[in-house]
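Private note to self, pasted from the team thread so I don't lose it. Backbone tokens:
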């Protein structure tokens, strides 16, 4: 495996001349009061916020990872039907607030019930379709770390469902190109024979964002990740950074109805987009507000979406222990 290099890799942003503030909005405040804010976190129930928000297109990108109903610290596990009814009520409120050229991205995994998995994207599909949204991609986000299961193959992917409201939508492909695998490849026949066939800006990152050596991966946030906070299920900033760059323009408004520690907000602020979020837990919201302030002032530490993969074959831990060779031989 080779480690790829990218001229775009960086860990710290450059600071803006005058940093905008982040408004912490209590659940007693009327959502309408948030309207003038570039960065706002509503600490309370997202459904209540949305119900009180004027029913008009406000958001250029809605991007979220809702609770998956798997019994995490921040959720009460319900039966699937109840959970989906709740999610539908929220999506019903979200769609009218999405601008006509905007995008909605729903990042979800599997609901697990008594050892059986229910891929949530299958359950969500009819809800989005019912609103007439148009699916552009079902992105497979593959990551390399997680628990190992004993009675099925260990789960290592989640999906991002990307929908647009109309055919006229923002898609900035050049902003998210990644280095091509064979940039030296040439046309081998036709009028361009002998000329380079690729794009000097790189290739389309494709719809499988995988932890393999020929594509550009976005690792999940585990204990040693530079972005790790107290939240048990943050999504990596790079995942949303790629969506923000591709699906919005500078100054656009990004909204996350289940903001957690504001990873989507960090991605938005780093790329000079505005951000609003809702988060039920005051503890997560506080961490999120802090991260958002750091991102706005150019101090956010994060792993960019186009950072090259770590070449694990170079690690001592990748060497096969000698005494395992005998054991492996005995089992076959
Ligand atoms: C999967 S986590 C999202 C994490 C987030 N993507 C991040 O990177 O930090 C889902 C979040 O939704 C929040 N949540 C659950 N029910 C909520 C509700 N009714 N209103 C607002 N937030 C809620 C949880 O506290 C949790 O932080």
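Design output:
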């Amino acid at each position: 495996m080779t480690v790829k290099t990218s001229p775009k890799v960086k860990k710290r942003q450059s600071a803006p001349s005058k940093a905008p503030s982040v408004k912490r909005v209590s659940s007693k405040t009327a959502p309408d009061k948030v309207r003038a804010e570039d960065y706002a976190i509503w600490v309370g129930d997202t459904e209540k916020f949305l119900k009180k928000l004027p029913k008009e297109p406000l958001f250029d990108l809605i991007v979220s990872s809702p609770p998956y109903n798997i019994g995490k610290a921040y959720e009460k596990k319900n039966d699937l039907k109840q959970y989906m009814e709740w999610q539908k009520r929220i999506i019903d409120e979200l769609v009218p607030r999405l601008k006509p050229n905007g995008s909605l991205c729903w990042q979800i995994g599997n609901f697990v019930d008594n050892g059986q998995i229910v891929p949530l994207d299958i359950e969500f599909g009819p809800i989005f379709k019912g609103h007439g949204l148009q699916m552009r991609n079902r992105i497979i986000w593959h990551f390399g770390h997680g628990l190992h299961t004993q009675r099925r193959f260990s789960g290592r992917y989640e999906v991002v469902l990307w929908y647009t409201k109309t055919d006229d939508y923002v898609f900035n492909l050049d902003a998210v190109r990644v280095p091509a695998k064979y940039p030296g490849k040439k046309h081998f026949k036709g009028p361009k024979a002998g000329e380079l066939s690729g794009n000097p800006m790189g290739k389309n990152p494709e719809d499988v964002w995988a932890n393999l050596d020929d594509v550009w991966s976005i690792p999940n946030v585990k204990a040693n990740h530079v972005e790790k906070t107290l939240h048990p299920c943050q999504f990596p900033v790079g995942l949303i950074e790629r969506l923000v760059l591709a699906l919005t323009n500078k100054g656009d408004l990004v909204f996350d109805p289940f903001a957690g520690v504001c990873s989507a907000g960090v991605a938005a602020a780093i790329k000079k987009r505005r951000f609003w979020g809702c988060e039920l837990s005051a503890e997560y919201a506080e961490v999120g507000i802090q991260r958002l302030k750091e991102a706005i002032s150019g101090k956010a530490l994060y792993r960019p979406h186009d950072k090259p993969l770590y070449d694990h074959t170079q690690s001592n831990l990748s060497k096969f222990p000698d005494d395992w060779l005998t054991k492996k031989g005995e089992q076959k």
